[in-house]
């Protein structure tokens, strides 16, 4: 029997033509950083340009600022407080400590800048987060890359100092610096993603992070050697990932020798755990970023 005229037939299912729409910042994972590497690089270049816009010497402040800090800290901690580097390799005492201090400062600055700026990366770019086709992970990704680029430039200055002070050559240990930079980037990106997520809900997060980084700067062997730690506080040093990173760079660049294999394992494990934990938190909350920024 035919259906009554007043009854409508069910509409056929709508077939989507073409690929599924890009959900933007809702998916993509860590691979989105590589897939959108040109966008990340564009952000990095714009970041460097904006940082020195209107300055007469512009980009050179990347080198001049840490040199001024180095001169200040060397005077205070070496000449006033009498701190030593503990290496005793025959260089002038003040030059030896200056190189030792500069290596620690360069490493610390790269870590600190990446973590603090990544913490506010989502809130600082709320106009982009609210765009459907934008991958949120590129924001902490590019600020970490920008901090790492600044660190690489300063490491180049450090190598020049080492060559002038030691009148020697660069050893093969230098080839291990890029893998260490990659591990450092993984650690900072993981911490940055986690803190960026927290910061979208709790706006005072960045102030807490800045205070914590100031405290950690003095807890980490930046101005002094690891041997200065009292034995009863050695656990604090071992649990501090920045202590291991600073120590590895000094071993490779200043001592020109391989660090202990256990240190490499610790740094690798910490970096992997930070990246996976940070991404997990970031991934599960990024759908709600637009509602809180």
Task: Give a concise summary.
The protein has 293 residues and is mostly helical. The chain has helices at residues 31-35, 37-51, 61-80, 93-119, 121-124, 126-129, 138-166, 177-201, 205-219, 234-239, 241-255, 261-285, 289-292.
Mind explaining what this structure looks like?
It is a single chain. The chain is an all-alpha fold and 293 residues long. The chain is 66% helix and 0% strand. It contains 13 helices and no strands. The chain has helices spanning 31-35, 37-51, 61-80, 93-119, 121-124, 126-129, 138-166, 177-201, 205-219, 234-239, 241-255, 261-285, 289-292. The chain is globular and about 60 Å long. 33% of the residues are buried.
Topology summary:
Blueprint: H1 31-35, H2 37-51, H3 61-80, H4 93-119, H5 121-124, H6 126-129, H7 138-166, H8 177-201, H9 205-219, H10 234-239, H11 241-255, H12 261-285, H13 289-292
Helix pairs in contact: 2-7, 3-4, 4-7, 4-8, 4-9, 4-11, 7-8, 8-12, 11-12
């Amino acid at each position: 029997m035919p259906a009554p005229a007043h009854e409508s037939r069910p509409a056929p299912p709508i077939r989507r033509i073409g690929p599924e729409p890009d959900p933007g910042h809702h998916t993509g994972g860590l691979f989105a950083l590589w897939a959108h590497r040109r966008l990340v690089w564009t952000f990095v270049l714009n970041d460097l340009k904006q940082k020195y816009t209107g300055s007469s010497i512009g980009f050179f402040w990347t080198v001049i600022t840490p040199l001024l800090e180095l001169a200040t800290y060397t005077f205070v901690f070496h000449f006033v407080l009498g701190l030593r580097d503990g290496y005793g390799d025959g260089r002038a005492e003040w030059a030896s400590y200056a190189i030792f201090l500069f290596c620690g400062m360069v490493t610390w600055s790269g870590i600190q800048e990446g973590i603090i700026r990544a913490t506010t990366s989502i809130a600082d770019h709320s106009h982009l987060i609210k765009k459907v086709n934008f991958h949120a992970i590129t924001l902490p990704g590019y600020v970490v890359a920008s901090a790492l680029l600044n660190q690489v430039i300063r490491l180049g200055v450090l190598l020049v100092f080492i060559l002038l002070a030691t009148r020697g050559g660069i050893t093969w240990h230098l080839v291990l610096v890029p893998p260490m930079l990659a591990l450092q980037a993984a650690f900072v990106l993981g911490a940055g993603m986690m803190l960026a997520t927290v910061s979208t809900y709790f706006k005072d997060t960045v102030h807490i992070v800045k205070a914590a980084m100031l405290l950690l700067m003095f807890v980490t062997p930046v101005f002094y050697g690891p041997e200065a730690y009292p034995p009863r506080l050695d656990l604090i040093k071992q649990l501090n990932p920045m202590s291991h990173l600073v120590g590895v760079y000094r071993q490779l660049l200043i001592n020109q020798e391989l660090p202990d294999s256990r240190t490499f394992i610790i740094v690798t494990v910490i970096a992997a755990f930070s990246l996976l934990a940070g991404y997990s938190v970031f991934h599960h909350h990024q759908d709600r970023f637009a509602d809180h920024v």
